[in-house]
Design brief:
With 631 residues, the protein is an alpha+beta fold. Helix content is 44%, strand content 16%. Helix 2 packs across helix 3 (98-109). The two termini are 32 Å apart.
């Protein structure tokens, strides 16, 4: 695991001071070594967290004549098999590192080398003969990669801060701000800064002669329905169950490849419990597991985690979050480089910090399971919507929705009134819009009021376009699979995986996600949605495959999710911080938000007339980020 960075210029050789400044910002991602190479118009570098080939894996690494340079952030899980393949073809490798494999693979197979990769990665390859740079990002977007093209020069890095370190102008992208306020993270290819972009997941960029070409080398939308077309014999449910379990075991096994000890985060939910169950049987050592909990009872799942740890004999450590929320907010608000307001980042940071202090460098998690197997309550709502709309209109609008809107506001974890009110917000809309409105923090109309200030000019292109663009690529009539695909390519990389990457790497910890192994994803993508959500049962086939391996109480418990008690914090420990960052004086001075709208939001939340914790948290995190990156 590393932080990678580089500069390619047509006009002049990159300056070492620029690369050194970029490297300094990525020291948390790679505290064990810094390496760089500058020659002619190219400079590449990496900060290294040593995981594989501890003495020999310092980057950049090369092919035999050093005409191809390679740096990577991530891990290539099938590097041993690929090394054998390359040796048989006559290549000479001088290390046992997975990074060196990339240089030789590209030399052997050209741009098709990506088809051979199994892992999580953001890669940069310099081909000195062709004078071209290749950038590639893994299929699901587990590892990040940002870039800037300007003045016949390309800069790239694992994090925005490395590009900013070169002195790039910090100009806010107002469309990105609009989208952030909609979903509490910045989705899509844009970043919060106008000049800097993200390389999309499963994409490759070729940069040559000051021109860039980006193409997608793997398309998950083409996989949906593949099983029906190509493996009809597998559609027997028992066979599907057995094949899924085999793929799960294979994914976990390959994610255990490491020259340092491997542990796991254990929440007590199905996904992390499945990973721990399989890893504890496949790992040659006693698996170490970690969980985090809170004083607020509805948010504390450590008891479930402990029962799984006892079942599989792991060396388990359970921690209670004791850090002050205000300290955590200030800390994590600067790590993301962009405004980011998925509040569960607090818990990921806390548990990552503990695992690293306990000596861990590599951790397995169950992230991605909800998108792959159909685990979010939004998918239950999508199913319910079909049935709900069959009711007579007078019953829906005359009784049900009137009662739901009058439910008293509570501020517990995934409270019923919150879910019910979100449901009716999209009940009259088409399936995609209803699904999107469940996720949206502010609606487009609310944002027009929130951003209605005299000085700030914003764009009003709806954030839903990102879901719509993916949704439209689906060729078929399986509605739930369409929605799953949209989430897989939008919220998964830009919210869930961004959160895990930044919070773990802020603690110099590598997190691996076996449930996003691309072979496993290809299999599940091809399944009809009835194997993911059956009636209102989430993760239907996964649960059936794990029955007997995991305790029934883990498989049958309601969906909980990895949440933190934000509403309670805002009412208590964070109230002064909110009052500071969202004060009328500050809001008027900064000129982004309508301070009258914000004060009404705060008043209604604190008076418990409504639960606006997600809306307020987003504004707070934007304020913390803005102060750090602009003031």
């Amino acid at each position: 695991m590393c932080g990678i960075f580089g500069v390619v210029s047509q006009k002049e050789s990159p300056r070492r001071e620029t690369l050194e400044a970029m490297a300094e910002t990525l020291s948390k991602r790679g505290p064990d070594d810094v390496g760089m190479r500058i020659k002619n118009g190219c400079g590449l570098g990496a900060t290294r967290l040593s995981i594989i080939d501890l003495p020999g894996g310092n980057q950049p690494l090369f092919n035999e004549d050093k005409s191809i340079w390679a740096v990577q952030n991530g891990e290539l899980y099938n590097y041993r098999e690929l090394t054998e393949e390359l040796l048989e073809k006559g290549h000479k490798l001088v290390t046992k590192s997975d990074t060196e494999v990339y240089a030789h693979l590209y030399e052997e197979y050209g741009l098709k080398f990506v088809d051979k990769l199994r892992g999580m990665y953001a890669i940069a390859l310099w081909d000195a003969h062709k004078e071209q740079l290749i950038l590639a990002r893994d299929r699901l977007g587990i590892k990040p990669l940002y870039y800037l093209v300007a003045n016949d020069r390309l800069m790239f890095a694992s994090e925005l801060k490395a590009i900013l370190a070169s002195g790039v102008k910090r100009e806010l992208d107002t469309q990105a701000l609009f989208d952030f306020l909609t979903v509490n993270y910045v989705p899509g290819e844009q970043s919060i800064f106008k000049a800097i972009k993200k390389l999309p997941p499963a994409s490759m960029m070729i940069y040559k002669n000051s021109k860039r070409l980006i193409h997608r080398y793997w398309q998950s939308s083409t996989l949906f329905g593949a099983i029906q077309r190509e493996k009809a014999f597998l559609l027997n449910e028992d066979e599907l169950q057995g094949e899924l379990l085999r793929l799960l075991q294979e994914a976990v096994r390959c994610h255990l490849v490491s020259d340092v000890p491997v542990g796991a985060f254990l929440s007590g939910g199905i996904d992390s419990s499945a990973v721990v169950a399989l890893a504890s049987k496949l790992y040659s050592q006693k698996l170490r597991t970690f969980s985090v909990g809170f004083d607020e009872k509805s948010y504390d799942e450590r008891g479930y985690a402990q029962r799984v740890a006892d079942r599989f004999g792991t060396k388990h450590e359970s921690i209670r979050l004791t850090l002050k929320p205000a300290d955590l907010v200030e800390k994590i608000g600067t790590y993301f480089d962009e405004p980011f307001a998925d509040s569960s980042a607090v818990a990921v940071y806390a548990i990552s910090e503990v695992a690293r202090k306990k000596g861990m460098k590599v951790i397995l998690t169950g992230d991605g399971g909800d998108e792959v197997f159909g685990g979010y309550v939004t998918y239950q709502a999508d199913r319910l919507l079909t049935w709900y709309n069959r009711l007579p209109k007078w019953l829906r609008w005359g009784i049900a929705e009137l009662l739901i809107k009058r439910l008293p506001t509570t501020q517990g974890k995934m409270a019923f009134d919150f879910k019910a009110k979100r449901f009716v917000r999209g009940a009259l809309e088409d399936p995609l819009l209803a699904h999107y409105l469940w996720k949206a923090i502010y609606t487009d109309e609310q944002l027009k009021t929130l951003l209605k200030t005299g000085s700030f000019k914003y764009k009003t292109r709806s954030c839903m376009r990102l879901w719509q663009d993916v949704y439209n690529t689906f060729n078929g009539d399986d509605m739930l699979n369409k929605l799953l695909l949209a989430d897989l390519q939008t919220s998964l990389p830009d919210d869930m995986l961004t959160k895990v990457d930044r919070m773990s790497m802020a603690n110099s910890l590598e997190v691996r996600v076996p449930l996003l192994d691309h072979k496993l994803v290809e299999f599940t993508s091809g399944l009809p949605s009835k194997y993911k959500v059956r009636g209102l049962t989430l993760k239907y086939l996964l649960k059936k495959s794990l029955r007997g391996l995991l305790p029934d109480e883990i498989l049958d418990r309601p969906k909980a999710g990895f949440h933190v008690p934000v509403a309670q914090w805002l009412n208590n420990e964070l109230k002064d911080l909110v009052g500071d960052y969202l004060s009328p004086t500050r809001l008027r001075r900064e000129g982004y938000f309508n301070q009258v709208f914000v004060q009404k939001l705060l008043a209604d939340h604190f008076d418990k007339k409504a639960d606006y914790s997600r809306e307020i948290w987003g504004l707070l995190m934007f304020g913390v980020w803005r102060e750090h990156y602009f003031d």
